[in-house]
Amino acid sequence: MIPLLLSASSLLNFVFYIYAIGFVIALGLEQWLKFRPLTPSTELNERHMYIVQTNRKYLWRETWIVNINWFVCNLGLYFLSRNLQPVGDTFWQGM
C-alpha cells in the first residue's frame, strides 16, 4: 500500500505543476487579450476571451482537485508509516 501511495503522490505532484503552469499561462493570456484584442471584431474578441476564461477556470479547478488528492495521499502515507518499526543498522553485523 505504501508504494502505491508514494507513486500516486509523486504523480499528483507532477500533474499539479503542469496544471499550475497552464493556469499561469492562461491567466497571462487573459490579461493580454483584455488589453490587446486580437481582432477589431468585438464578437471574435468575446469568443477568444470566453475560451481563455473557460480554460483558466478549468485549470484552477483541476489544480485544486489534484492538490487535495495529493494532500490525502500524504495523510495516508503519514498514518500508514507512523507505526512502522525503524530500520536497524545491519550493515556492520556481518563482519
Topology readout:
Blueprint (H helix, E strand, L loop, with lengths): L1 H34 L6 H40 L14
Helix pairs in contact: 1-2
Determine the fraction of residues in helical runs and give it as a percent range.
over 70%
The major pleated sheet works out as: none
Number of strands: 0
Instruction: State the separation between the terminal residues, measured CA to CA.
Output: 34 Å
Classification by helices and strands: mainly alpha
Q: Indicate the low-confidence ranges by residue numbers.
A: none
**Domain module count:** 1
Overall pLDDT, averaged?
Answer: 89
Radius of gyration: 23 Å
The helix count comes to 2
Shape: rod-shaped
Strand content: under 5%
Please give a structural write-up.
Helix 1 runs antiparallel to helix 2. The protein is built from two helices and no strands. With 95 residues, the chain is mainly α. It has one domain. The longest helix is centred in the middle third of the chain and has 40 residues.
Q: What would the keywords be for this entry?
A:
2 helices, 78% helix, 95 residues, mainly alpha, rod-shaped
Offer a quick outline of the entry.
This protein is mainly alpha-helical.
